[in-house]
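new request in #modeling-help
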Amino acid sequence: MTRGNFILKGDIAWSKDPKTIETKKGAFLVCREGKSAGVFQHIPGEYKNLPVIDYSPALIIPGLTDLHMHAPQFGFRALGMDEELLEWLNKRAFPEEDKYADLAYANRAYFFLRENLKKSPNTRIVLFGTMHVKATVLLMKLLEESGLVCLVGKVNMDRNCPDYLREKDAAASLAATREWLLECGNGAAGGGGKVRPILTPRFIPSCSDELMEGLARLQKEFSLPLQSHLSENRKEIGWVRELCPKSDSYGDAYAKYGFFDGKAPVVMAHCVWSDEKEMELLRERGVYIAHCADSNTNLSSGIAPVRRFIEMGVPLGLGSDVAGGTHISIFRAMCDAIKVSKLRSVLVEPDKMPLTVEEAFYLGTAGGASFFEKAGFGPSGSFEAGCELDALVIDDRTISFLCDLSVRDRLERVLYLSDERDIKAKYVQGGEIETR
Amino acid sequence: MTRGNFILKGDIAWSKDPKTIETKKGAFLVCREGKSAGVFQHIPGEYKNLPVIDYSPALIIPGLTDLHMHAPQFGFRALGMDEELLEWLNKRAFPEEDKYADLAYANRAYFFLRENLKKSPNTRIVLFGTMHVKATVLLMKLLEESGLVCLVGKVNMDRNCPDYLREKDAAASLAATREWLLECGNGAAGGGGKVRPILTPRFIPSCSDELMEGLARLQKEFSLPLQSHLSENRKEIGWVRELCPKSDSYGDAYAKYGFFDGKAPVVMAHCVWSDEKEMELLRERGVYIAHCADSNTNLSSGIAPVRRFIEMGVPLGLGSDVAGGTHISIFRAMCDAIKVSKLRSVLVEPDKMPLTVEEAFYLGTAGGASFFEKAGFGPSGSFEAGCELDALVIDDRTISFLCDLSVRDRLERVLYLSDERDIKAKYVQGGEIETR
């Protein structure tokens, strides 16, 4: 078959909008030049000559999108889970990240991560690397070979971190960032690869004002997307208040550095404790939130006000936040988002309805995928005509035993019960990638 | 090898007490007549002739205990998860339970459940059946063949439930209960089987006063353990207040029926909204709580005050509560218990510390296992000498890749990351059971 030109047959489901899962049983998903030409109950005449891959009775759904994860933390996920954020960073995350100065270690660890990402239901991923230029370039190379669509960041940090991880000063950090952009061969947004750079100041406490201002200039010079952390934890917010006394809020501090003025999109992880004013700022500037329910629970951060984000229209997707979160699968992130929204509704805000399966599925597909579109890729996360074709083929027969279910209900069970064994095939931008 | 007389070698871990996980690397767990004779770094002379099964470098830990699950709900777990308790019961649980009037359906569904339980890390399980005598006897027979230790209840319900599931009246329900006790051949506690009966009034709203009083008499006549639901949901508590106007609390209503006076133990699922007085009543009468964190989250019930239960000394174990919960594994229940305790601490009670890995592991092993001891089985849930030997052999090599970890830290990762594929062998009362 010509790469990118084929038809997939199965029971097809995708988000039409945040409230609606569209389903078609025994239907045909047409892929032309790597893009969806739509879902049809019968093959339209113009596509009669395309090869049909019949996956019936499997489910076919869009690939999932992870807006926040830390590549170097995958190897030690699910360790030290009884600790809070700042303790966990110092005892677990930083000592592990230091190991990536050693390229042999980085190669072993990132290869292991890459193989796990291939088997996962995720097709588009935004990742933190470490502060190391070479290791981050290596990560990007490994990911490029996988076929996954990724935005990867070399981390910047020049203060309030262990000596062994601190970049000498703002100038050194900025120079290393330019070196990284040059080496990954992809400095300008729109470079053709599947794996592209995203600027990655760790968070305000670990970046000096001078570094932040320099990064904001780089962001505009190269029209680069940017990721960081925001309002995850109350202690952290208090700390930022001390560090940035002239800012109204943690978010406002990022805005004052100039990060929210660029053309390329910005994604901030967490926003558990954002107040109305900070949310309004994010909405106004079109800043994405990566909602990471599992991590916010594990690190005792709290429960983000996701219903309020949705009401206000802040752009929103889901993040695994490995290794604050323990699992890379965005199916898991969808269920976690639903679950914590129920607890928030019972315990904090009885007037805010919990997330539905429909909404969580939307956030983990089309919602997060729109970030990649803003970052220069084609539209994705859906099977509407014109979308880059990221698709998962899921054999749910062992899960659905005993029950005769609608496609929508089968999808709900897949969210809660499936694992990587159930993924029969996975396509990214119209190309099949290995999952075994 | 003589059944029940052997030695297991591996990296061994068990709860010494709620705060301490004892570990021994490359050690020997001696099994004599189905019971632990202790864990040794070198094989004592008196056991030199026992066969050694070397599972190194696998972990060996006690089997897990599920104090609450609904056997007929396994087939439809992870469906209708956007609904609250009473809606979900009427739309999902009751129509499904009705199908168990058909023994062919019951056989198919319970066989499927049984095969999944064998593969799971659980070795002792307390289950609700349905109100059907024949189907419940069939479930007990299927479970007896598996080698798992189980307490199984025929459900009683004679009001406030759909006509198709309601027992005609209290007398009919009590007669059916006697018939069930006779048919399962195990009416008196201490009957020798691995699977034994437990009285199971569904909950106060679905049982008339006359039925409850009759069941309390049966409980004493046969010295039977008993299970039910308590204070799961605020609407439900309001309903019980209307139904039992003379009782101080939902728990007090059970006490007034006489359920808390028997010799055999009682386990109540949930207790999410128990107040101090109800908790004190449970503690005083030695009533067990089955803490079901996943279910309480999924059904928007809330977060149970587990730290307070522990401080007060209420006997406590974990429950999967399938299908309010979606997963049978008590590893998952341990992690869920830790996670929701963190959210309760952040959002409700900052002065209450979250559960630790040590505590959750204790609750899911020795904590829950003590219920079975009170119900007439031997002690279990630990490897202290004299305990019935329930053991899991877990090959965690894929999980622990990249890290050189202590046995305790490997165990933490197993809680969060393992699944049934990692279980290499499983022993119950000193006998190996099939997990493939």
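bot summary: The mean pLDDT of chain B is 95.
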